Amino acid sequence: MERRRFVQGLLLASLILFANAAPAQEINLLPKYGGLPKADWQKAADDKFIAGMDEDYRGDRNKASSDMAARGWQYLAAGDPEDAMRRFNQAWLLKNDCGVALWGMAAVEADWGKLDDSLKLFSEAEKFVSGEINFSVDYARAIGMVGSQRHDDALLKDAFDRFQRVYDKAPQNTKNLQNWAMTLFAVGKYSDAWEKVKLAEATPNKGDLDPRFLEALQARMPRPKN
Known about the structure:
Number of helices: 11
Structural class: mainly alpha
Strand content: under 5%
Distance between the termini: 85 Å
Number of strands: 0
């Protein structure tokens, strides 16, 4: 009987521990921690993290936040969006107006299919990193993706305008041209998509073009000879 009670006690303790740990994990994977209230122990952990970073960076929150956001992008590039979101959240915790962190959150949310949340974060980040050409490329892509999926003419116009503005500033940006072509493909403008592909193939990074997209476009409309 005593052993049974002991085992039951362990099981109950494990369930309580899991119940307390699960929300923390979920909060860490939500942009800006989901705006949810934190328990006292979570607040204490935040305070300890911030104090440690202040000591390491001698109070330079800008540098600390930027470095943490950079780690997030490294994780994202390595195919680990969960750890990326954790780092972006920590960067935001250090500095709420860290545009690179907000941009990273937007990118992760887009990858997870949370498009409305992604666009909100992109819009918020734009106030701080609008001068970054790669941000403009990613934001235009996200708007084009949502616009084509929802057949939203206003969003599509915004996306195409943004593609054009990026092209005017950086005509050799292969990714922008490919995103432009993909959006045109998504709305059935295959001839126009081939025109953007042709421009992309004339850029130094033409090797970055996605062959799967080119195959899909070829299947819908053979490559024009001219």
